[in-house]
Specification:
alpha/beta; oxidoreductase; NAD(P)_OxRdtase_dom_sf; Aldo-Keto_reductase; two-stranded antiparallel ribbon; single chain; TIM Barrel; 288 residues; Aldo/keto reductase; binds NADP nicotinamide-adenine-dinucleotide phosphate; oxidoreductase activity
Length: 288
Amino acid sequence: MTLLSRTLGSYETTAVGLGCMGLSIEGKPSRELAVQTIHDALDAGCRHLDTAWSYYESGGPEQTNENLVREALASWKGPKTEVLVATKVGHYRNFTDGKPTWGVDGRPENLIKRAKESARALGVDAIDLLYMHRPDPKVPYQESIEAMAELVKEGVAKEIGISNVTVEQIDLARGIIGADLTAVQNQFSPIFLDSRDTIKHTQETGLSFVVWSPLGGFRRPKDDTKFDSFRQVAQAHNVSYQEVVLAWELAQGDHVFVLPGAHRPQTILDSLQAGELELSAEELALLG
Ligand SMILES: NC(=O)c1ccc[n+]([C@@H]2O[C@H](COP(=O)([O-])OP(=O)(O)OC[C@H]3O[C@@H](n4cnc5c(N)ncnc54)[C@H](OP(=O)(O)O)[C@@H]3O)[C@@H](O)[C@H]2O)c1
């Protein structure tokens, strides 16, 4: 099956990628099921995997998701060089009041050290697409971004992305990284619409916009009424409402990519169909 493909920097890759986070953080499936989920996604034509240095359980061994992705690719029989593997640096896992949390460390020396560890865990000389995971309020953003630019010069990363950013931060990063900055990864979904300004700005500036938690995240509760109109459209097409959500996000522009997460093959196999789902102008107007 050929899935909808779009241009991200120098890559031609599927508009629907697999967000691998849930496969190795709290609530993860068995290792076997995690590998099966990645293999089935790749077998179905998915060519974009999203991981991060920090996708491991708080208190557990670091980089487990990057190791999982490397192992799953190594044991996959398909064309590995077609797969865009993106990772991120700048976050780490922690505990707050005994609960697992995410810490942020955007110091240049930390970003450089973690990026080299990411390349090693992924088993590559140069990372296809390396994001700075989140701005660190303790570190001037410019300093973090200069380190990301340095990682391209050093050959640790081929292209750079930034994540969880504002329009102003995008412009600052463009000024420092130049053409090697190719992607912005922000949250967007029916329950989180605040990113419309960055979707527009990335389109105007020739960057790709990659959507995280495109289905509103895997944690409950969330305001389910926000999905009512998507359920209505889904009924008419006889597809899942999740497919309609992803198709609506992809319809925001040709520069948009989505990264649905999955804990099992069934959900990603369904999500991968979203690129083929065409929504009418009336349906898009209803969905907002
Ligand atoms: N840059 C960042 O700061 C950042 C932050 C968060 C996430 N991310 C990225 O975004 C990815 C996705 O985020 P996420 O997992 O939080 O949220 P999500 O993709 O919005 O939601 C995942 C949940 O949706 C369910 N699902 C997926 N496709 C489905 C389908 N077709 N039908 C029914 N249910 C479906 C999954 O079910 P099952 O559990 O049953 O499989 C899972 O529970 C992450 O893996 C990560 O790569 C990035």
